[in-house]
Amino acid sequence: MSMNNSNKPLIIDAQLLQTTAWDRGMGHYCRSLIEAFGKTEDSNNVTIIVNKHLHLDEQRKTQIQDLLPKATLAILDLPTLSGNIERTKHIATQKLDKFIKEKYREEEVNFLILQLFTFDYCAAFPTSANKFVLCYDLIPLLNWQKFSNYFAPHMYFPHLVTLLEANTVLAISNTTKQQLQDQLSINKDRIVVINGAYIERQPIIEFALVDRGTPFILMPTADLPHKNNEVAVKAFEQFNRELGGIFKLVITSEISEDTQQLLNCYSDNLIFSGNISDQQLEYLYQKSHAVLFLSSVEGLGLPILEAINSNKPVVCSNIPVFEEISQSAFYYCDPKQSDSVASALRAAVIQSGWENKQPEYNRIRIKYTWMNSAKQLVGSLKNKQVAVEKKKKRKINIALPHPSSTSSSLGAIAQSLVPALKDAFEINSFVSSDKYVNENVMPLFLDYMTTVEPIEKILDTKNPSVYFIDRSSASRDVLRMAILRPGVCFITTKDTTQLLEYLAQTGQITNKLASAGGRIAKNNLAGILTQTGNKVYLLDAEGANISSGQDNNTKSYTQTDDRWGLAQTIIQQVMKKTEEQGGGADD
Q1: How many C-beta atoms lie closer than 10 Å to residue 53's C-beta?
Q2: For residue 64, what is the DSSP state?
């Protein structure tokens, strides 16, 4: 059964616009997108939901209403954020269900969440709706070692679960789409890229932050680890010395006093603007000699699009999301190397090759418009959604090295596959212990999606079991369980000599067999697992693909280009193994 979403009522959760994000990049993004959407023919039947417990004076209420003049503004008694996200989400869902039932009766609705990961409110989906969510990036997950001080696990990961509930995820770039595929194994067909555009602002006539006639570089940034501020300032000072110290570096946004003191240690030519108005920021763009944007990771990069609108040279990191906008329009540099950044700044200021870059600016301006983004949103709302039939799922066990082990990457890869595996199975996870576990480096978030138990507990179940094994110490007990309780094994093709030695020490294989190294050891591991009743498949070192084995004991299948595809193939193999065993799931 399929459902056509065309002309369905749209409900927009706009609680984000009641927070301080109103004046930040995310708020500007949402406001511009909604305003452009309001100019389409599909914006007639829209309700904007706000929270009566968040900031909503008459001015803000009018500002929100002006974004979509034809929309209805509904002020609901929604919960604000609490320490128990799961309970707060449950309460929010109940209140939304009641609202939708009273307003729309049996009518089907589309529901769009503008932002999940906030500290002010707890966005949730209603029970019955076509669910859409905007996703800007997965930066905290990608850089957990740096961001764990900003996002407590119990406050961040429940929102990932809500993200996985969406029928359609609206990604602001292809890079964000790839993050969703790699980190959460979301089917690429469920992700729609809507891009973005520059923020339209009117400049003021004069802004006395910088003395008239003083040349400056503009650095839009934030006081966050991925913005790479220290390298940027060091590189600027190196560049500035070479040009006689005539430039200033204007650093926007709110930067803490501690960070300002640190950055001032590297240069005496810094100007911190603090939070400024849109008009003041536009003035800085137009008067700057170049724009420096040195993030190590981003979801899109609005400052780059804004610099293009002001026709300014852009110095930026050579990272995929910026190269997605253009591979030739900017002065690229290595964000880890001050010399590289300083060289790119020098080239930008003297406008080396500028005549070849400006035509590319025109192409970018045509592609990255808010109306184009709004059209992508409209198209996603009209796409047919396949109604998933609710049926009893087969229970399986997933056994893996601890995802937070610094000795292994396979556990984190296996963890990323679980969202896709959950579409087919009811999963119980069994995680090995390891002395190298550090959850501040790579988090364990399986327990927000499945039950998680120590690896030995797998012997107490009757469910079909799936094992992920690499050569690390974190895999030793996973391997031991696979021999004691056979299932389907996915092993990397790296040298597994140490694992064989461990099996010999525990008396499960002979010392002679364990002493065989290199390629023989790999084949022996597959052979040992097969002889004990396992089906064995070889993963590559990154867990991205599975290739042919080197003997008749291993199986192979066609390569996949994303984690969702890998998960689908794993599902096929587990289903096949289970059928051969005659079921085996617990009741």
Answers
A1: 16
A2: H
Three-state secondary structure call for residue 529:
helix
Count of H-run helices and E-run strands, the chain:
21, 23
Please report, as a single letter, which amino acid is at residue 435: K
pLDDT per 10-residue tile (average), the chain, 587 residues: 63 96 91 95 92 96 95 96 88 96 91 93 94 95 88 89 95 96 92 94 83 94 94 97 95 94 97 91 94 96 95 97 96 96 97 94 96 96 65 89 89 92 92 89 91 96 92 90 92 75 80 60 72 84 47 40 79 78 50
Residues 307, 291 contacting (CB under 8 angstroms): yes
Q: Residue 519 and residue 530: Cα distance in Å, rounded? A: 17
In terms of DSSP H, where are the helices of 115-273?
139-142, 144-147, 153-165, 174-184, 229-242, 257-264
Residue type, 203: P
Distance CA 177, CA 194 (A): 10
Three-state DSSP at 532 gives coil
| Residue 482 contacts residue 530 (beta carbons within 8 Å) | no
Q: Strand 425-431 and strand 394-400: pairing? A: parallel
Q: Which two tokens stand for residue 155?
A: 């406050």
CA distance 112 to 10: 7
Give the DSSP H or E segment for 429.
strand 425-431
> How far is Cα 548 from Cα 538, in angstroms, rounded to an integer?
7
Strand runs labelled E in 65-125: 72-76, 110-113
- Cα 6 vs. chain centroid, distance in angstroms? 28
Asked if residue 294 lies in contact with residue 335, where contact means CB atoms within 8 angstroms, the answer is: yes
**What is the model's pTM?**
0.90
Closest residue by Cα to residue 194 from 224, 208, 173:
173
DSSP assignment of 401-468 equals --TTBTT-SHHHHHHHHHHHHTTTEEEEEEE---TTB-TTTS---GGGTSEEEEGGGGGG--S-EEEE
Rounded distance, CA 565 to CA 543, Å? Answer: 12
* Cα–Cα separations (whole angstroms), residue 224 to 105, 140, 231, 446, 538: 45, 11, 13, 26, 39
Residue that is written with structure tokens 């509930």 in the block = 165
Contacts for 356 with CB less than 8 Å, ≥ 6 apart:
328
Q: How far apart are CA 349 and CA 44, in angstroms?
A: 48
Do residues 332 and 326 lie in contact, with contact meaning Cβ atoms separated by under 8 Å?
A: no
Contact 332, 304 (CB under 8 A): no
Task: Identify residue 302 by its one-letter amino acid code.
Answer: L
Q: Can you read off the two tokens belonging to residue 507?
A: 């008396």
